[in-house]
Description:
Elements: H1 3-15, H2 27-34, E1 39-41, E2 47-51, E3 55-60, E4 69-75, H3 80-83, H4 90-96, H5 105-114, E5 120-122, E6 130-135, E7 140-145, E8 164-169, H6 173-183
Antiparallel strand pairs: 1-2, 2-3, 3-4, 4-8, 5-6, 6-7, 7-8
Helix pairs in contact: 1-4
Amino acid sequence: MTPHSLAFYVHVVASGTVLGAKPTDGPDRVTAILGSDFAEGSLDGHSMWRDYGMAEFHWTRETPDHPWKGHHFTLQVHRLPYGGGSIVNQAIRDRYGRFDRHLRFDKLERLLEKRGVVLEDAPDMNAPAFTRHWQPASQVSVMTFRAHPEWRQRRRGDDRIGDVYSIQSSVSAEGVARDRERYGAQGRRSPTVGAGS
């Protein structure tokens, strides 16, 4: 992976923004930053998302008469093995260059720690197949792939153990505390880390 694309991920985790677009920004602001090349969806008129390739932004509103309020964004990093860097939004590629098909968590974590950005373990309902790591200041979580289900046959391009699956903001301290109560302490390193790739 190029240093430039790694710089993108480091900036997202450290700042909680995508090219300056915050999870609380409205649709017009996000589109002004990321461009008009997106797919849009809504299930009920109270929630909406725009898919900008790897980046998805989500909004909610009380009624159709109310404005959209930013809820969260997710970087769907797991899409990279299948679509390659071309699924990354053009505005992001213009700024950061080429994107590899995989983002290794250990590499991302090392770069963050060099900049003083520390990730805490945060339990998640998807353990042990995934581990979640949380940055309190930016309220960003990083979901990492840790194990292939025994029943699933591997395919070319599948996630590799130790790959980042997704990056999401905003993940509040209250939400992490609830998950800690609900799912207990879960270790960040599973015995399957490093097994296969």
